[in-house]
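Notes from the pairing session

We agreed to fold both candidates in a single pass and log them together. This is the raw record for the first candidate, unedited. Please don't reformat it; downstream parsing expects exactly this layout.

Candidate A
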Amino acid sequence: MTTPDPGTAAPTPPVAPAAAPAPQWGTGTPAPQWGTGTPAPQWGAGAPAPAARNVPLALAAGFGAMLATALLYGFVVKAIDFEISWMVIGIAAAVAYPLGKLGGGGPALRPVGALFTVLGFFLGEMFGLALILREQTGVPVVSALTEHSDLLFAAWKTAFDVKSALFIAIGVCVGFSLTKTFGRS
């Protein structure tokens, strides 16, 4: 064993650097601000930004979809000479999509979706009956829809049954709920 030389100093252990002084509150040092930095994106966190709502455009597009589907439904009724009541679900989807997407699916647009669905279904059936009347009697479609609308409505009432009422009720529910659903997505 060797003895240490009394003239040499013993080695000192390494010293850690001094820590920065803690901030003193109220002395001009800014306090840390939590949540002001840009957060890291997290999977599944947060909701997407809401889409811009343009209610007049949504109403115009929903009305246009209602007219287009009414014409399409009328041509289908005339082509097969039969009423397809379950097509009200397709009319509801076509009407609710622009109402929900453009209008944001607000609570005021949901009854409009239901109303446009039923109106599109009714106008489609009237247009189909006018096309059938034109084929059978030669009365022009515009004349049948304007001057002879009482005859068309009377024919529609005689063909109206429980099944038609059920599908109209389904159309109201589907038009209402799809407007809400499309507004969320």
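Candidate B (folded immediately after A)
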Amino acid sequence: MTELFYKNKSIVAFSDTHGIHRKLPYIPADIVIFLGDACTFGNNTQLHDFLEWFSHYPAKHKLFIAGNHELQWLYQPNDFLQAFPKNIIFLDNRAIALEEINFVTVPARIELVKQSKLKLPNKVDFLLTHAPPKGILDSDMDCSNLLKYVLKVQPCYHLFGHIHECRGSTILNNNIHFVNVSI
């Protein structure tokens, strides 16, 4: 799990639990961000158990971004959204400000990378995606559209997961902190 401190707020971010979330500690934070793959291959039991566990996470704000294994979001979006407890914010292709920190998400699951038409805040503090951009902790996965978007938006941080081999790695490139938060 990755701990960050930004604008006097504590932020915990992680991804790719694939059903083993109950083995993780709760690290209290102002904001906790989950960046996808709570389950494996759309396993509803794992997803529902994760959401129940995550709803009790000791954080004022809880953000959830879908990964490539949340197949429910692709094939049964209404059922997927109805499963979310009211204290978890699901983000996909959206901008939100919390605690004076601007978060932007785009659907950066490998097969869905597209240029976003979001109205962006003047400053993007955190770009949140499941997958990394091309050439940045990506194990040669080609996400060139996402790289173009990141360079255009210029967030302070780009948080992502997906590539387990690069878990916990951080790179500073073009004044952007790229962080792989896979567990």
